[in-house]
Write a structure and sequence with these properties.
The protein is α/β, with parallel strands linked by helices and 387 residues long. It has 13 helices and 13 strands. The two termini are 15 Å apart.
Length: 387
């Protein structure tokens, strides 16, 4: 089955489209990557999205406009991916959409909202679309995150030691795959605070710390670093999830209350060090023996250097070294989730999301032809192989 996964993370910097051939052979899923396309949001849509995210307030009119605008942006990239990566036909498109709110109270997720109306994708491409992948897990008592955990478990199970899959997006998350029951959770901010500080300090001329230049020039502010590490989220037991509802510019401003003015480079250095420390603490807490990283944060050499130091000898490598393009990892993971859905297979690992049971995920929007829905295979896949 030819499948396209569409993804925009919590950094909302771009939409990724990863195409793959997917099939089930015996008890394993075989994924053949076909390529990746990325497209930045139109600046007006990105600005509209940024101004509507927590802690800002918004209106139902604005939510409707965003749902349409994001859906159309996803549809435009999907149409391009069908032509350029799939030779003009895709059996299935899987859209994560854009997370705009993740409702967490006292560690329990009560709801999650991803915008990007899938009807626009189905109309533009003629392909069946699977979307709204997180809500079913939340309804089953889970965190709805990190949903990529099933991909990580299928892919990394069987490696020696305790491999840890790491994603450095706006929020950092890990999947720990020991020989026993796996676990997954959001560790805290990855790029969320870094990006927020850079956008504020540079006045919109840049949205991220390119090549870690600002962090590399700065020094960690000891008192602010101490205050940030005191955040109660870090000590909560897993499974757990978080988002920009917690880690935003106002959160950082509150932590700086009463401190003398901090130089911009030092501020960026401090929040970059926070990401490295909190990720490494989580890896150490669960006995990780190697870290396999993906996401936009791996392009920040200062962050990766600090993380390697904090890991204290635990190998740190990118998914590229294992045959999976790091830039496309999450988009491929969502392609697999949709593929599981149309094969009638569960897309969650309860020990990773905290749900009462595993669930078949998502909602299906028909395309122009027959639905690509298959009977569940005779054997439930227990492994993922990248060709």
């Amino acid at each position: 089955m030819r499948v396209i996964g569409l993804m925009s993370g919590t950094s909302y910097d771009a939409i990724d489209a990863a195409a793959a051939d997917l099939r089930i052979e015996g008890d394993r899923i075989v994924l053949t990557p076909l390529g990746l396309l990325s497209r930045e949001y139109p600046e007006s849509l990105r600005a509209e999205l940024a101004s509507s995210l927590p802690p800002a307030t918004t209106t139902l009119e604005q939510v409707c406009r965003l749902d349409t605008g994001i859906g159309q942006a996803f549809a435009g990239l999907a149409e391009q991916a069908v032509e350029q990566l799939c030779g003009g036909h895709a059996d299935l498109i899987v859209s994560h959409g854009q997370t705009v709110f993740h409702w967490v109270e006292e560690g329990q997720v009560h709801g999650t909202l991803q915008l990007g109306q899938p009807a626009w994708i189905a109309e533009a491409t003629g392909s069946t679309v699977v979307s709204d992948l997180r809500s079913r897990d939340v309804a089953a008592g889970g965190q709805g995150a990190p949903l990529v955990s099933i991909f990580d478990v299928l892919w990394l199970r069987g490696r020696s030691g305790t491999p840890v899959a790491l994603n450095l997006g706006g929020i950092a998350n890990i999947t720990v795959v020991p020989s026993s029951e796996p676990i997954a959770f959001d560790t805290g901010p990855a790029n969320a605070l870094i990006d927020a500080v850079v956008r504020e300090l540079i006045g919109g001329r840049s949205t991220f710390d390119a090549d870690g230049v600002m962090a590399g020039r700065g020094r960690v502010h000891p008192e602010l670093f101490k205050r940030l590490l005191a955040e109660p989220y870090y000590s909560r037991p897993a499974p757990k999830s978080t988002g920009k509802e917690l880690f935003h510019l106002g959160y950082l401003a509150k932590a700086m209350t009463g401190l003398p003015e901090i130089a911009p480079d030092d501020l960026v250095a401090t929040v970059t060090a926070l990401t490295a420390r909190t990720v490494a603490d989580a890896v150490h807490a669960y006995g990780g023996t190697e870290v396999i990283a993906a996401g936009g944060g791996i392009r920040n050499p200062v962050l990766m250097h600090l993380l390697a130091q904090e890991l204290r000898g635990i190998p740190l490598r990118s998914t590229d070294e294992l045959g999976l393009p790091a830039a496309a990892k999450e988009a491929y993971a969502f392609a697999v989730l949709g593929f599981l859905t149309v094969n009638g297979l569960a897309g969650t690992v309860p020990s990773c999301t905290g749900a009462r049971h595993a669930s078949v995920l998502g909602s299906i929007t028909p395309g122009l032809g027959a639905l690509p829905i298959a009977a569940p295979p005779e054997r439930v896949p227990v492994a993922l192989h990248i060709e």
